[in-house]
């Protein structure tokens, strides 16, 4: 049996995520993983393509993603703003990388490269370019790592509609992905990065560039056998509620995000 290839396309982030997770559960290959403990069932796995037509359309948040709203805001800031880049310290047994550090300060031959700034400048000068991208993989560091990056590459392309309105479309490419417990937070944070880059290009070009489509491609999009029972609860929840009862808008989430920002500021103060 070959690894299934599944494509899910919908308007919003929570729609696409829910459909993708349910689809890999129903149609994914049963296969072992390097993290299985004795007695764990096989994982369910597929190559997954998730296409979100309007990643900034509300509602943007699925209530059933495994994590709280405060954690979602903290993770967004880790990816977009690098609030925990200082936690990188492999020699102390701590983090070996962050996505923010690899994207905004990629270290190569003694040089630090801001790949996001470079991509924005490329698109600002040549909006139809196919060369604007950023990578995370470092062959020297990641080949033998026990925790190598899942995100591998982000690719950008600007399109234009019939009225001349411009859109920044973004594709992300993932080596491996925990479909149930990680992918929603990943998608939420990366689409916020997409928004930030669109704003940067808008300033450089002196014209509005809006966030466009978001396509998320995972080589391995999997549900671990160790939490099949937990996933059964998720499945029951999403299959018995209407869409408005299983999603939140950004407006609803904002008070929780504000609490997360307070906690982040308090952490910064304690570290000074």
What is the succession of H and E elements? EHEEEHHEEHEHEEEHEHEH
Given as residue ranges, the uncertain stretches (5+ residues, pLDDT < 50) are none
Name the assembly state: single chain
Strand content: 25-35%
CATH class: Alpha Beta
Number of domains in the coordinates?
1
Please state the CA-atom Rg, rounded to the nearest Å: 19 Å
Global mean pLDDT: 95
Give a short account of the largest sheet: 8 strands, mixed
If you consult CATH, what is the topology?
Answer: Thymidylate Synthase, Chain A
Number of strand segments: 12
Q: Considering DSSP H and I runs of 4 or more, what fraction of the residues is helical?
A: 25-40%
Number of helices: 8
Shape: globular
Structural class: alpha/beta
State the distance separating the first and last CA atoms: 55 Å
CATH superfamily: Thymidylate synthase/dCMP hydroxymethylase domain
CATH architecture assignment name: 2-Layer Sandwich
Topology:
Elements: E1 5-10, H1 13-27, E2 29-31, E3 43-52, E4 61-62, H2 69-80, H3 99-104, E5 106-108, E6 111-113, H4 115-125, E7 133-135, H5 139-142, E8 151-160, E9 166-174, E10 177-178, H6 183-205, E11 209-223, H7 228-240, E12 247-248, H8 250-271
Helix pairs in contact: 2-6, 2-8, 4-6
